[in-house]
Structures are given as structure tokens and as C-alpha cells.
Amino acid sequence: MRIFSGIRPTGELHIGNYLGAIKQWVKLQQENECLFSIVDLHAITTPYNPKELQKNILELAAEYLAVGLDPEKCILFVQSQVKEHAELAWILGTITPLGELKRMTQFKEKSKKHPDYVNAGLLNYPLLMAADILLYKADLVPVGVDQRQHVELTREIARRFNKRFGPVFKEPQVLLPKMGEKIMSLQNPTKKMSKTDDPKGCLGLFEEPEEIKKKVMSAVTDSGKKIKYDPKRKPGISNLLLIYSLFSGKAIEKIEKEFKDGSYKNFKKSLAELLINSLEPFRKKRKELLTREVYIKEILEQGRKKAQLIAQSTMMEVKKQMGLF
Ligand code: TYM
């Protein structure tokens, strides 16, 4: 299977990104042809600091490697270095009705959040994402559930293109993790964990032990006592149980039993310890990798070359079918 996914270089990864997306990527790279991108052209649709973008790109590359992506097993590259992404996005815009872009949840949310910066790029964001996926004729797109709507639109766009111009694109399928498709904020457990929307409720994947402890111990729960998985009535505790289960590999029911007579405080202490131990190797590896800029740039350059070969070949097909060549 061909796999494509990407993350915006907007700051450190959090455990939501890991559990929703990257943890799957690390497994998938073993037996599939995978491309994982640092999608910088998507990152510039919301306010950002140009002086920090290159640094964020390199850091995200180091983070990809630190959590276990292996450049021998997958293609790692920076989106803007393969110009075909922007080129295909333009073309896809010419066959996509405006209404379909306007009804995207992310567009609505982001334009509400940045009312002074509702640029056309924000509206066209899903076209670029469709271009990312379709250029490589990906079969599967492993993401968290917040990105499902965009992958569904990508399928629709592929269908429309193929019908009008001939069969070029594959219709990709979204691949959600069995558990962890939406990790909630530690401070606001009815909202998605997000580095940009809610930094306090967001647990970084490379956070220092002290910080992990602080954030977990102050996670919002409820006034009850029972450690039970019940997302509707107990969203805070349920989110913590889910995180516990995903990092320990233990079933939720087993954890509930273990903490049957325990307090929220004890449960949180144990979760903090589990997270500190689980994340320690990632933090160490990231730190080490950040001192090896030349090595990381070389990996991205190799990735660019490989990605570009595929992208150019698809683009040639697209242009031929459309009468542009
Ligand atoms: P981005 O950069 O917002 O997020 C990266 C990935 O992390 C997942 N994610 C979560 N999963 C579970 N719980 C959470 N709280 C959580 N927060 C984030 C996201 O679903 C995503 O998989 N548009 C994309 C980037 C993109 C892309 C693509 C993805 C651009 N082109 C092509 C796939 C294929 C985005 O903004 O992800």
C-alpha cells in the first residue's frame, strides 16, 4: 500500500499528534511504501513568524526521527520543496465548487479564530491537502479524526477529476487509529488537545518530567471519585484512562480494576510516572538529533528527490489528460 500523511511545522508535537497519527505511521512504515511530509505550505495559512519557520521545519524533522520514523523505510520531505504540490492544488481548485470548501469545519473554525486573517489560502487549504495525497496516489491516509472530512473531500475531488478527464487518481481512504483518534485537552476535556488553541491543556511529546507531572496532576476531572471510562459523563477521567491505556498497552477495563479503590490523585500520579518513563527516550533522542542539522538536512534532501520523482510523473499524467501538455 502507498501511504501519505503530514503535519504542519507549527511548534512541538503533542501526545495527540502522536496517538492520533504518528504512532500508526511508525508501524505502517514496516510494510508499506510511506511518504511523510512536513507541510509548511499549510502552516502559513494562519499567522506565523517567518523567522521561525525554518527552525520549526528542522525541529519537526528531528521529532519525526526521534519517535521512530526511519529514513531507510519511508520518505521524509518538506512539502514546499516539491513544487508539484502547489501546482496540482491550483488545478484541483478549478474543479471544486466553492460551496464544498466553505462548508469545511476547519475553515469555519479557523476563520472564527483569526477573523482578521481569513485569507483565500485558508479556504483553499483542503485543495492543497488533496494535492498532497493525490500526487502520490496514496491508498491510505493515517490521521486523527479531525482530518477525516478533508480526506473525504479528497476522494470526491479524485472522483470528479477522473470522471471529467480520465482515470488518473486513486481514491484514498482515511485510516484512523483503533483508539486515540481524538485526544482531549487536559484542561478542557470536551475539546480536542491542540497546541495552538489550548497550550495549557496540551501535553508536549518532549516535555520535561516536571512539566509532565504538573500538567497531569492539574488535569481537569470531575467531582466524583470513581475511575471509570464514561466519556459522556466523565470526559476528563476517560481521556486520562485512554492515554494511560495507549501508553501502557493495558486494556482500559484492566486499569479501571487496578485503580478501583484508588483516588484520582493516585491515578494521576501513576499516569504522570508512566508518561515520564514512556516519553523519556523520545526527549533524549530529539535533543541529540537537534545537534545534527547536516544529517537531518541530508535526509530531507534524499526524501525530496524521491518524492519529486513520483510527483512529477503524476503531474505529467494530469497535464496530458487536461490538454495542458
Ligand atoms: P495537524 O498538523 O493539525 O495535525 C497533525 C496530525 O495529528 C492529528 N491530531 C490529533 N489526533 C488525535 N487527537 C488530537 N487531539 C489531535 N490533534 C491533532 C491530526 O489529525 C493530524 O493527523 N491538514 C493536516 C496536515 C496535512 C495532511 C496532509 C495530513 C496536510 N496535508 C495530507 C494528511 C495528508 C493538519 O492540519 O494536521
Describe this structure in words.
The protein has helices at residues 15-28, 40-43, 50-66, 84-93, 98-102, 105-113, 120-135, 148-165, 209-217, 235-248, 252-258, 264-289, 293-322, and strands at 2-7, 33-38, 74-78, 140-142, 173-175. α3 packs across α12 (264-289), α7 (120-135) packs across α8 (148-165) and α9 (209-217) runs antiparallel to α12 (264-289). It has a 3-stranded parallel beta sheet with strand order 1-2-3. The protein has a two-stranded parallel sheet with strand order 4-5. The two termini are 30 Å apart. The protein is globular, with a radius of gyration of 21 Å. The chain folds into 2 domains: 2-180 and 293-322, Rossmann fold; 206-287, Tyrosyl-Transfer RNA Synthetase (Orthogonal Bundle), CATH 1.10.240.10. With 325 residues, it is mainly α. Tryptophanyl-5'AMP (TYM) binds at residues 4-8, 16-17, 19-21, 39, 42, 129, 132-133, 141, 143-144, 146-147, 181-183, 192-194.
Helix and strand topology:
Elements: E1 2-7, H1 15-28, E2 33-38, H2 40-43, H3 50-66, E3 74-78, H4 84-93, H5 98-102, H6 105-113, H7 120-135, E4 140-142, H8 148-165, E5 173-175, H9 209-217, H10 235-248, H11 252-258, H12 264-289, H13 293-322
Parallel strand pairs: 1-2, 2-3, 4-5
Helix pairs in contact: 3-12, 4-7, 7-8, 9-12, 10-12
The protein binds tryptophanyl-5'AMP (TYM).
Tryptophanyl-5'AMP binds next to strand 1, helix 1 and helix 7.
